[in-house]
Amino acid sequence: MLYYLRMKNNLTTYIKLPVTTKIFITKNLNILKISSTKGCLYLNVLFLAKKHLIFTKKGLLITFFRLFQQAIIGLNLGFTTNLIFRGVGFRVEMPDKNFLKLKLGFSHFVFFKIPKQIQIFSPKKTRLILKGFNRQFLNQFSAKICSFKFPDAYKGKGILVKNQILYLKKGKKK
Questions:
Q1: What's the CATH number of domain 80-161, 3.40.50.720, 3.30.565.10, 3.90.930.12, 3.40.50.150?
Q2: Per-residue pLDDT averaged across 134-149, rounded?
Q3: Band of pLDDT at residue 7, cut at 50, 70 and 90
């Protein structure tokens, strides 16, 4: 199937849907359900219209198109986020499939429950790879993990997202 969206400036963008992806519209025409083999996502069209009243109709259309595009990409390819644990003694362990054990320099371990929509891999003890099909939920989960130890402004120790740029402050001068 080939769907296209025509915008005001005669820009036509085509989205190719794989065979495994199916799109449904509810009876009251305000919720769009996109399902695939990995799961399903819902886009609330009415909520978008209320949220973006200050935008023009073109802005609303572009916002909806980008959310729709991210949902299709996520359900077919998926999104990944890499977290790096930088610092002496900062480690990550997976004692169970449902829990994540973090050693972050506290006097205790931090245990974190893993949601069903996210898959976690740890190739090294200082690296964590998160995979999921919902980009917003994945970024929210990784931000929750990063909130336990934000990067230090002087040494750069903490939990970082890969390729995150850190600007370190200078220390005391004598």
A1: 3.90.930.12
A2: 92
A3: very low
